[in-house]
Amino acid sequence: HVIHKLRAQGVDNVKVNMDWQHLLMNGENLGEYAAMLAAEGLLGHQHANSGWGTFDDDNMVGATAFMETLELAVELRRAGYGDNGERLGFDLYPYTEDAVAVVQRSVLQWRFIDSVAARIDDAALREAQMQKDAVRAYELVYAALGGE
User: Fold this and answer.
1) What pLDDT digit, counting tens, does each position of 111-136 carry?
2) End-to-end CA distance of the chain, in Å?
3) Where are the beta strands (DSSP E) in 11-110?
4) How many domains are contained in the chain?
5) 22: buried, middle or exposed (CB in 10 Å: 19+, 13-18, 0-12)?
6) Where residue 1 falls among pLDDT bands split at 50, 70, 90?
7) Which 8-state DSSP code applies to residue 51?
8) CA proximity to 113, closest of 68, 56, 53, 59
9) Residue 83 lies in a domain
10) 1 within domain boundaries
11) Inter-axis angle of helices 66-78 and 30-39, to 10 degrees?
12) 142 CB contacts (<8 Å, ≥6 apart)?
């Protein structure tokens, strides 16, 4: 609502920050949320993290919700996120782990997840999604992961 009010006043440079764990806590689908924001031209900064879904855990990227994060990576690629210099920000709170190691691991895990997303045949995945063929969609995803 606020963004649309701002746009009505001629302010067109405001976008939505996606905090992944906040969305997970609220039962939101990361990929769908990113796609919706991208379609509206509102996809903004990404607070990359992971968690159990009931608290703002701010765990390492991919530590939990791996498939949801992979789906998000696919949608970010579809939206061209990063093509204009956009970058992820790692919103992490290491409770017991070494803070530097947590950031390093999150960067490496995101790069891996994004590389898997890049290996998915997106045209075939879109077709499977349009046909509501979950079996075919998972075949494509698991092939990109190195499975059958």
Assistant:
1) 999 999 999 999 999 999 999 999 99
2) 44
3) 16-19, 43-48, 88-90
4) 1
5) middle
6) confident
7) -
8) 68
9) yes
10) no
11) 20
12) 148
Cβ-Cβ contacts under 8 Å for 77 (sequence gap 6 or more): 114, 117, 118, 122
Query: For position 41, what pLDDT does the model report?
Result: 92
The mean pLDDT of 10-39, rounded to a whole number, is 94
pLDDT, tens digit (0-9, with 9 covering 90-100), for 66-100: 999 999 999 999 999 999 999 999 999 988 999 99
* CATH number, domain with residue 62: 3.20.20.150
Structural domain includes residue 5:
no
**DSSP letter for each residue of 84-143:** TS--EEE----SSS-HHHHHHHHHHHHHHHHHHHHHS-HHHHHHHHHTT-HHHHHHHHHH
User: Residue for token digits 């440079």?
Assistant: 13
> Is the separation of the CB atoms in 6 and 14 below 8 Å?
yes
Please state the rounded mean pLDDT for residues 11-37.
94
Q: How many CB atoms lie within 10 A of CB 127?
A: 14
Classify the C-alpha dihedral 25-52-147-113 as positive or negative.
positive
What domain range is 19 assigned to?
15-144
**Phi and psi of 133, rounded to 5°?**
-100, 85
* Residue whose tokens read 């968690």: 51
